[in-house]
Design a protein that fits this description.
Blueprint lengths: L2 E3 L5 E3 L3 E2 L5 H14 L3 E3 L7 H10 L8 E6 L4 H15 L6 E4 L6 H13 L6 E4 L3 H10 L6 E5 L7 H9 L3 E5 L7 H4 L2 H10 L3 H11 L3 E2 L6 H8 L8 H8 L21
Helix pairs in contact: 1-2, 1-10, 2-3, 3-4, 8-9
Length: 273
């Protein structure tokens, strides 16, 4: 595993297991399998309605809590609602703290929401706080109003939507770029791309492994999800090779600024300004 260190000194695996669209009734089993496969970063959210199941899996795993990095996301707007939501999430997940909590998307009162996260961070309920789906103007607003800098911005990122300008902005501000939908939710074009197929043959890997390794080699925190134990293991098996500088440039050339779509206009704007 490769690790990153946030701007507050907290260390995190660069690669983890996402639970988006995993139904609550099968989440616990999926997370158990992920932990068995070697994942130590688990990503959930209030909006997924599976924090309790994720917490159950962690508590039953036999793995020390400090060896697991647990992320959740706030879907609340404003100080009071978010303050209450943090405590409710901790109760649901049966945890004393989260390693990271992020605002799931820009809210009508993102400043109030972030204030609640900052206070929870200051008293130890959250080890780190950050953002998701925030563009550079929105990130700037947070940084201009708070002493606690966000440690991550989790945005849609894949080999076909690389967020290059946003990536550069985040690096310049010492904020980790984190990817959601790193495989474009299985978009067919990705699996049939000649460049990815050629590299998969060269390195004796699958196309998804090639696409995931590209993000990791770019130092992008990445959280694919699956309910298939074999796919879980395959997704994690990407740390035994490195692309050459020339291959990385070729892969960067695959950027089409094309995502999965379907977002409201306010969230589907070009984050890479």
């Amino acid at each position: 595993m490769k690790y990153l260190t946030f701007n507050n000194g907290v260390k995190t695996p660069i690669f983890g297991f996402g639970t988006y669209r995993i139904q609550p009734r099968i989440t616990e089993g999926a997370v158990v399998e992920a932990l068995k496969a070697g994942y130590r970063l688990i990503d959930t959210a209030q909006a997924y309605s599976n924090e309790a199941e994720v917490g159950n899996a962690i508590n039953k795993s036999g793995i020390k809590r400090e060896d697991i990095f647990l992320t959740t996301k706030a879907q609340t707007s404003g100080y009071r609602e978010t303050k209450n939501g943090i405590d409710e999430s901790l109760i649901h997940a049966q945890q004393d703290y989260f390693d990271l909590m992020i605002i799931h998307w820009p809210m009508s009162d993102s400043l109030g929401t972030y204030q609640a996260l900052e206070e929870a961070y200051q008293v130890g309920k959250l080890r780190s706080i950050g953002l998701s789906n925030f563009n550079h103007d929105q990130v700037n607003e947070i940084m201009n109003n708070f002493d606690t800098k966000p440690v991550v911005d989790q945005i849609e990122t894949s080999v076909f939507k690389q967020q290059k300008k946003m990536h550069k902005y985040l690096i310049e501000n010492n904020i980790v770029h984190e990817s959601w939908s790193p495989l474009g939710e299985g978009m067919k074009a990705l699996f049939n791309d000649p460049t990815l197929l050629s590299l998969a043959e060269k390195y004796n890997k699958t196309v998804p492994q090639i696409a995931l390794h590209f993000l990791v080699q770019e130092n992008i925190m990445t959280i694919p999800g699956s309910t298939n134990p074999l796919h879980m293991k395959d997704n994690l098996d990407i740390f035994d090779f490195e692309f050459t500088a020339e291959e990385m440039e070729t892969l960067r050339g695959l950027d089409q600024k094309r995502g999965i779509g379907g977002w409201p206009a306010s969230m589907d704007q070009e984050l890479d300004y």
